[in-house]
Every structure is written in C-alpha cells, then in structure tokens.
Amino acid sequence: MYYWFKKFRDQPGSEMGGFTRILHSGKSDPFMDEIPTFVAQPLPSGMDQGYIVLNRPWAFVQWLQQADIKEDYILMAEPDHIIVKPIPNLSRDGLGAAFPFFYIEPKKYESLLRKFFPDEKGPITNIDPIGNSPVIVGKEALQKIAPTWMNVSLTMKKDPETDKAFGWVLEMYAYAVSSALHDVHNILYKEFMIQPPWDTEIGKAYIIHYTYGCDYDLKGKMTYGKIGEWRFDKRSYDNKWPPRNLPLPPPGVPDSVVTLVKMVNEATANIPNWGS
User: Which keywords does the record carry (predicted)?
Assistant: First the structure.
C-alpha cells in the first residue's frame, strides 16, 4: 500500500498528504524505518477477548490525542488496500465519504442496534452501512467519534447477543453507530473501492481491496471455494513474504484480478530488500 501511496501522492488529482501506519502492538518493528509509524498501546490483556480488531479504535484514540496531525481530513485505509489512482478529498459539506458494505445492515438489526443508538437519535437509517475503512472524515469529527467508537465496540463485544449477531464485523458496526451518534453522516461512494474477484473491472475505483481469495482454473473460470490451479489469496502469505514476480492469471481472468497481481508485482520489484 505504501509504495502506491508514494507513487500517486503528488500526481494530478491527488489531495493526499501525510501517511501514518498505526501499529497497535505497543512495540516497534523493522518496518518503522521505511514507513512512518505511530506505535499505540494495545488494550489491557484479555480485554479484546481474542477479537484483535478491538484494538483498532483504541489505537486511533491514542494517535488522535498524541500525534501532531497536520491535515484537516483523514483517510482511514487498511494494509490490504492498494491505491490505484490519485485520491482527492471526497468528503463535502461536513459529510464524510465512505464505501457502503452490503453486509452492514442497520435496518435488519434494528432491535440490537437500539441498545447503542437510542430512539431519540432518529431512524435507524441514520446509521450508514459502513465500516471505518475506507472512510474520509474530518479530523475534528474523528476526534469526537473515536472514543465513542472504542466504547461502543467494547460494549457490543460484552453483549452476547450482539457479539453473536455481528461476529467479525462488530467493530465496523460500532464505527457506523458512533459516526451516527455524533451526527457525522457520509456520502456513500460505491466506486470508492472494488473487491476482486466479485468486482471484475477497475472502473472508477480508487482502491483495490484484496480481502477475498481469487481462484481460477487454467481456462480462466473462477473456482471460488475450491483452490484453483491459479490462485492469489493473501492468506497464503500469513507467515511468509509473497515472492517477487507472482505468476499472472491465465487468459480470461477479469481485469481487476490481473491488475491486482501486476500492482503487487510492481511494488515488490521496487521495494529494496524485499523478503529479507
């Protein structure tokens, strides 16, 4: 991600400023010499209940309180995002800008969400179908949202019914609720991000999110759910570096997947000492 950020930051159409990797391990790592990094302390032992993502809002609280942030707006993104073109400030008129996730469904879970978003805050549709990433939001707004995001996340996790219903997206719901509690609403940009292999074209997207595995046979037919003769899946590299010069997909594989692999290859080819 950082390679492509640097490549696009100063190009026409970009309004990107500084870059900070927020590391919530509480200790430095070898990548700090290469990537600007803020080291946040993790939650006290056991508080995340094995759901490590609960450390994210707490890390943002620390960063917003302790760091000297020059910019007035913040783009929250994740390590498995690749920037595919210069990103402007998509937020407007006090609204944030966010990608809508089909699986964040406030209306479906209204009875649960009312535990955290009371009736007096308005209709449940005031909660946008978003997570915290990708989101562009004003710094002052995020300074208000972040402590609430942390507290709502922890409270949701402690509630067995909510924890069971939301599972791994609990912290995403917590951000959406917290943003709405502070009356920070969002322009929903479907074209903010694509997610191969389901999104097959780059189109007008700014970000590729490689969260899903991409499996194909050698004829270019997707074999999702079954390991393909050709595959790219970040989970293959949980404990090792992706090698340089990954093989390109076979003919017939969608452009989004081809572009993803080409961009990974370009980055690894140009990052010094890759894999060492």
Answer: Glycosyltransferase, Membrane, Transferase, Transmembrane, Transmembrane helix
User: What are the tokens at 175?
Assistant: 């951000």
pLDDT tens by residue, 171-203: 999 999 999 999 999 999 999 999 999 999 999
Helix, strand, or coil here: 258?
A: helix
Q: How many CB atoms lie within 10 A of CB 57?
A: 26
pLDDT of residue 9: 97
Amino acid occupying residue 148: T
**Tokens found for residue 193:** 């991000």
pLDDT band at 275; cut points 50, 70, 90: confident
Nearest CA to 44 among 26, 63, 66, 22?
26
* Tokens linked to 9: 């930051």
Q: Which residues of 33-51 are buried (b: 16+ CB within 10 A; e: fewer)?
A: eebebbbbebbeeeebeee
Distance CA 151, CA 273 (A): 41
